[in-house]
Design brief:
The chain is an alpha/beta fold. It has 20 helices and 10 strands.
């Protein structure tokens, strides 16, 4: 056989080999709001990259922003034209989950949890009970939302309002008395200190906690069917008292400015979740900090402990894309990654395999904070899980006018009710 013939045969074989289709990687688009410069944002992006590094057969195409609101707005716009990413992290924003569920485009996770032992083992008992009752589940978070009240214990002890080891008052009336005495002490001592630095969201947080102390989550769900309620109108009245106890310039700025006021010692109380321990841990402020559930009416304490909206997988994707998205979810909820989320972002992990004792030992401030929050007599979900976001927006849009006396409490409730009726 001549050399020319051999070369022709080899070329033909190589051509046939090239013509055999190679198995291509599956591409999934992932949207999230961890695009900022904070240490927790950087850690979450590194965790997401870990999935890509471990799965070269999956092409994870990421669309992110430093603010989850930007991500949700963009994703909702996509839904309006029947498009959605294969997977999205909603970070508690129920409006996207509600919209995707209404359109029938969110994948029901219940059958996958029931039939996948690995995924099933990552789910906490409270959520597993819903799944075992065959309730549809269209979203699952990677961390628990636990929220109460940070406070500067040292300032309160210096003012003679707390003794070492003493807890905050559980009664709202007694708590308000303490706040008023704090203002009077600061005035006598010529100290620039106020109890609060409240913005729109902090007023909403206190308002809902007060309502919850009247009847828990059942009462809050009842209100979502009609906001012209006398208890609700009464609780709105307490917010005007709070205005006198807050630095006014923070109202229009937001949570970051409120947090800074607290860090600087200009305000004594800061209403936010245990996740803020990532900001406070290791700083000069840490030894001075306490945490508490919210004081309530009739001495009933309240905290927010919830499984908020989290990751949503598209039901419109191909079977291979859905399988890859579920693998991504199992990666995020695995004990190894959940431990990283706890250690690197200082959030309370969802996976029950990460024990409470481990968290307390590794991060005393985080352990202290959620331990105190768990002592609340009533624990409720976040308001976004209980009320429609449009009603929450109506509250935020009108709270400034209400606090300034431009509208009455009943008119405020009426505006919330009109929004509900218009949904």
């Amino acid at each position: 056989m001549s050399l020319m013939v051999v070369l022709l045969i080899l070329a033909a074989v190589q051509s046939c080999q090239k013509s055999v289709p190679q198995e291509s990687s599956v591409e999934i688009k992932f949207m999230h709001g961890w695009g900022g410069n904070g240490t927790d944002h950087i850690a979450m992006r590194d965790i997401y990259q870990g999935f890509q590094d471990s799965r070269p057969d999956v092409n994870l195409v990421i669309d992110s922003a430093p603010d989850i609101s930007i991500v949700i707005d963009k994703a909702c716009d996509m839904l309006a034209v029947d498009r959605m990413p294969e997977i999205i992290s909603t970070n508690g924003r129920g409006i996207y989950v509600a919209n995707a569920t209404a359109k029938g485009t969110a994948l029901n996770l219940t059958p996958h949890i029931l039939h996948d032992e690995q995924l099933r083992g990552c789910v906490p008992p409270t959520l597993l009970s819903q799944v075992e009752n065959n309730q549809p589940l269209y979203s699952i978070p990677d961390a628990m939302e636990v929220q109460g009240l940070w406070y500067n214990r040292t300032i309160l002890e210096e003012a003679g309002l707390l003794s070492p080891g003493q807890s905050l008052p559980s009664s709202w009336d007694e708590f308000m008395k303490l706040c008023q005495e704090l203002v009077e002490w600061a005035d006598r001592e010529n100290r620039e200190i106020m109890p609060f630095a409240l913005d729109h969201q902090r007023y909403l947080t206190i308002f809902v906690a007060l309502l919850a102390s009247r009847g828990g989550e059942d009462y809050l769900r009842q209100l979502s069917q009609g906001y012209l309620d006398e208890n609700l109108i009464e609780c709105l009245g307490y917010l005007r008292e709070l205005k006198k106890l807050s630095w006014p310039e923070i109202f229009s700025l937001g949570i970051n400015d409120g947090r800074q006021s607290f860090e600087e010692g200009r305000s004594v109380f800061f209403l936010n979740g245990v996740w803020d321990n990532i900001v406070f841990a290791g700083t000069d402020l840490e030894p001075h900090l306490g945490y508490s559930a919210y004081p309530g009416l009739d001495g009933v304490t309240v905290s927010y402990v919830s499984l908020s909206e989290g990751y949503v997988i598209s039901a419109m994707s191909s079977p291979k894309q859905q399988e890859a998205s579920l693998d991504f979810l199992k990666y995020i909820l695995s004990e190894e990654v959940q431990t990283r989320i706890m250690e690197e972002t200082l959030q309370v992990p969802l996976n029950p395999a990460v024990k409470v004792e481990m968290i307390r030992d590794a991060h005393p401030l985080l352990g202290m904070a959620f331990g105190e929050a768990y002592k609340a007599q009533i624990q409720v979900s976040t308001v976004y899980s209980l009320w429609h976001e449009a009603v929450v927006a109506a509250f935020n849009d009108n709270i400034a006018d209400y606090l300034d006396g431009k509208i009455t409490a009943r008119q405020m409730a009426q505006l919330m009710e009109e929004t509900r009726l218009g949904l």
